Amino acid sequence: GNAGRRDGAPKTPEVTFQDWGLYRSTPSWLPSTTPVVAPSRCCVARTATTRSRCGRTRPDAVERILKAAATRLAVSGASALTMQEIANEAAVSKGLIHYHFHDKDTLLAQLVMWMAEGLVRREHAALAASAPHAAIDDLWRWLEAELDRGHVRALVELASWRSNRVRAAIVEAMRLRRAASTTTAARASII
């Protein structure tokens, strides 16, 4: 209820990553004691879209920020990457980036997971539609597209980033990627 609140406003319920079905457990790069509140303020990547005033759909702000960060990371590298550069690319204010991502390290840690999850999702999609005789060719096409996208290079660069939060996200991304590789290898051995 309102216990402990001077302003009488209802207490914001604590929500975990598991409640959103994003992770089986709290990511290792986020302290387990950290409550995640108000999904609208969450810095977890979503793929939702919103309707603009003219009726067109466009990715929500978090998605646009992450896409812009990935694009700018590929162009300028992690150390030269600025929040203003990302804001300009995403067509959002720098304040909105700080609203969703407290600082550059938080943004980069989320970017690591967003890129890794996308990489795994695209790999599964490439092989799900693949006929047994074409699986290897489809896997090579997927890999070529990933290399062109630049996310693999960005993940490799961020693996040496100085922040413990980003390094922990890289470790989590490697676990996710390793699990996907196991599934891919098992599928390839059946074919």
Q: Your description of this structure?
A:
The protein has about 190 residues and is mainly α. Helices cover about 55% and strands about 5% of the residues. It contains seven helices and four strands, in the order ββββααααααα. Strands 1-2 form a two-stranded antiparallel ribbon. A two-stranded antiparallel ribbon has the order 3-4. Helix 1 (about 60-75) packs across helix 2 and helix 4 (about 105-130) packs across helix 6 (about 150-160). It is elongated, with a radius of gyration of 19 Å. Mean pLDDT is about 75; it is low at about 1-5, about 10-25 and about 30-50.
Alpha-carbon distance between the termini? 57 Å
How much helix is in the residues?
55-70%
The shape is elongated
Proportion of beta-strand residues? 5-15%
Overall pLDDT metric: 75
SSE ordering: EEEEHHHHHHH
Give the strand tally.
Answer: 4
Low-confidence stretches: 1-5, 9-26, 29-50
Please give a handful of descriptors for the protein shown.
two-stranded antiparallel sheet, single chain, disordered N terminus, elongated, two-stranded antiparallel ribbon, 5% strand, 191 residues, 7 helices, mainly alpha
Short description:
With 191 residues, the chain is mostly helical.
Helix and strand layout, with pairings?
Blueprint: E1 14-15, E2 36-37, E3 49-51, E4 57-59, H1 61-76, H2 83-90, H3 94-100, H4 104-128, H5 135-149, H6 151-158, H7 164-190
Antiparallel strand pairs: 1-2, 3-4
Helix pairs in contact: 1-2, 4-5, 4-6, 4-7
